[in-house]
Amino acid sequence: MSTLLIVTASPRGDRSASRALTATFAELWARKHPADTVLLRDVGHHPVPHITEAWVVGAFAPTDAQTAESRAAIAVSDSLVEEFLSADRYVFGVPMYNFNVPSTFKAYLDQIVRAGKTFGFGPTGYEGLVKNKKALLITASGGAYAPGTPAAAMNFLEPYLRTIFGFIGLTDLHFITADSQAQGEDAARHATEIATNALKELAESW
Ligand SMILES: Cc1cc2nc3c(=O)[nH]c(=O)nc-3n(C[C@H](O)[C@H](O)[C@H](O)COP(=O)(O)O)c2cc1C
């Protein structure tokens, strides 16, 4: 029995490709693992706060420098970190915005990438503390960024996600992408079908 945390970042509802694919995977997963706990964190519809000065005080200043405001700001982060660390597996549904993650997802990452909690300092430098966990990253984009094409260099989304999750120790990442969502109905449908089939296969073996 394990805990699956699903984080969705599209601000859209029914029109969102990443949200639809994430929901498909969640359904397949729940069918196959009915005893698992599934947690939902919808930062697309319910954004978490951005980092403030009070947050920085809460995270880094000594106890006697804390204020009611800094304690409240860091309490939000503490509870998001606690939720994050309670999971064994993750599904992130993330649209590409301006070649990277939407700011709502970045705000979430800023809350959970925490010194002493999700990363530390080991004898050889920074050390990720999120070990032995897996993540599925379901991304959606208007264009297509296949490796080897000129557009691939503009895809900061996947390398960024690999970097930031790798930094906290989460290196077992599986990407499924519904690209071409703005390339006409046929291209979008085709890309979504390929992604759906990949999800179905993964739900059996992940
Ligand atoms: C503000 C904004 C920025 C976007 N930037 C990009 C981009 O840089 N590259 C791209 O291929 N598509 C871009 N798109 C298109 C989205 O990635 C595409 O619509 C995707 O399907 C959104 O995910 P969703 O369907 O889950 O909402 C952008 C869309 C919006 C609204």
- The SS-based structural class is alpha/beta
The low-pLDDT segments are none
The count of helical stretches stands at 6
Molecular shape: globular
What share of the residues lie within helices?
A: 40-55%
- For the largest sheet, list the strands in their spatial order: 2-1-3-6-7
- The fraction of residues assigned to DSSP E strands is 15-25%
Q: In sequence order, what are the helices and strands, one letter per element?
A: EHEHHEHEEEHEH
| Total E-strand runs | 7
**Oligomeric assembly:** single chain
Distance between the termini: 14 Å
Bound molecule types: flavin mononucleotide
Using only CA atoms, what is the Rg? Answer: 18 Å
Look at the structure and give the mean pLDDT: 97
* Largest sheet, strands/sense/barrel: 5 strands, parallel
Q: What features would you describe in this structure?
A:
The protein has six helices and seven strands. It has helices at residues 17-32, 53-60, 68-86, 103-112, 157-167, 185-205; strands at 3-8, 37-42, 89-95, 119-122, 125-128, 134-140, 172-178. The strands form two sheets. Strands 2-1-3-6-7 form a five-stranded parallel sheet, sandwiched between helices. A two-stranded antiparallel ribbon has the order 4-5. Strand 1, helix 1 (17-32) and strand 2 form a beta-alpha-beta unit. The two termini are 14 Å apart. The model has no long low-confidence stretch (mean pLDDT 97). Residues 10, 12, 16-19, 95-99, 140-143, 181-182 line the site of flavin mononucleotide (FMN).
